[in-house]
């Protein structure tokens, strides 16, 4: 009998056959990015791990080396810097990269006009501009080889405005729309694009965003559910919680969804 934790191994042959030998994972130092890296290593991919904290990435590479076919490549990069993003593509030019998992990102919370403008603009740089730059660079590369996969991290909040997380939700709406538009553009040249839209996730995200997330999905649940649907859908709500939240919101008009999530955010950000 196959349990949930074994499912990615069952998908390993399909994923490698579809996308090739190497995968680039951004935001790999913790949370969802780390979970993707763990699962892709188990699936036999050579990995390129990208994040700002080089020491953390080196420790992860050492941990993953016995599982992966080769020692993962580590690239320390600040995705808010365009040159650092371009460097990722250059430093992987010698590798047969066929899969991009753009898991890097962060959020903020609280009233937008009371927040820190520099932090809000930095979030747009990381969540939107860097993601678009990476998707463009690797998308062209995959289209030229006529094979590849791109995973973009959307969110439950991408489908309506969210008071007290207005800018973060807007960045995720950009990601969702980009994925939905790119998927039919790139499908004819053999490139799969998937938007992964989880609900609340128990990771370091909540602490940085100053949100009190009392319960949610695990990063591994998100990674498993996403990899299982790559090449099969354009959008996935990975895990039971994401699907339940989608079901509770999908029949409501956007204004009602925004009002409901406003109440949720008010409860999660009382201490902010």
TrEMBL record:
Keyword Ligase in annotation: no
Superkingdom as given in the UniProt entry: Bacteria
Lineage, please?
Answer: Bacteria, Pseudomonadati, Pseudomonadota, Alphaproteobacteria, Hyphomicrobiales
Assigned protein family: Belongs to the short-chain dehydrogenases/reductases (SDR) family.
InterPro entries referenced in this protein's UniProt entry, alphabetically: NAD(P)-bd_dom_sf, Sc_DH/Rdtase_CS, SDR_fam, VLCFA-Steroid_DH
Q: Gene3D superfamilies, alphabetically?
A: NAD(P)-binding Rossmann-like Domain (3.40.50.720)
Q: What is this protein called?
A: SDR family NAD(P)-dependent oxidoreductase
SUPFAM superfamilies associated with the record: NAD(P)-binding Rossmann-fold domains
PROSITE patterns xrefs: ADH_SHORT
Task: Tell me the compartments it is located in.
Answer: Endoplasmic reticulum
Chief subcellular location? endoplasmic reticulum
The alphabetized UniProt keywords are: Oxidoreductase
Tell me which species this is from. Bradyrhizobium aeschynomenes
């Amino acid at each position: 009998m196959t349990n949930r934790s074994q499912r990615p191994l069952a998908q390993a042959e399909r994923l490698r056959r579809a996308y090739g030998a190497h995968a680039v994972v951004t935001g790999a130092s913790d949370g969802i990015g780390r979970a993707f890296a763990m699962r892709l290593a188990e699936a036999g991919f050579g990995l390129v791990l990208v994040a700002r904290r080089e020491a953390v990435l080196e420790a992860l590479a050492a941990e993953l080396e016995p599982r992966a076919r080769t020692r993962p490549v580590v690239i320390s990069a600040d995705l808010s810097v365009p040159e650092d993003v371009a460097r990722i593509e250059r430093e992987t030019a010698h590798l047969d990269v066929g899969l991009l998992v753009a898991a890097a990102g962060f959020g903020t919370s609280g009233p937008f006009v009371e927040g820190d403008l520099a932090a809000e603009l930095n979030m747009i740089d990381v969540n939107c501009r860097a993601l678009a730059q990476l998707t463009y660079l690797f998308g062209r590369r995959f289209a030229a080889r006529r094979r590849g996969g791109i995973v973009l991290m959307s969110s439950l909040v991408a489908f309506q405005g969210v008071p007290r997380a207005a800018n973060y939700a807007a960045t995720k709406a950009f990601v969702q729309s980009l994925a939905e538009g790119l998927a039919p553009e790139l499908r004819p040249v053999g490139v799969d694009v998937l938007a992964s839209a989880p609900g609340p996730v128990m990771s370091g995200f909540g602490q940085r965003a100053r949100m009190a997330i009392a319960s949610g999905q695990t990063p591994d649940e998100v990674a498993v559910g996403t990899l299982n649907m790559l090449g099969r859908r354009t959008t996935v709500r990975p895990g039971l919680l994401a699907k339940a939240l989608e079901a509770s919101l999908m029949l409501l008009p956007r204004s009602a969804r925004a009002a409901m999530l406003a109440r949720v955010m008010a409860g999660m950000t009382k201490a902010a």
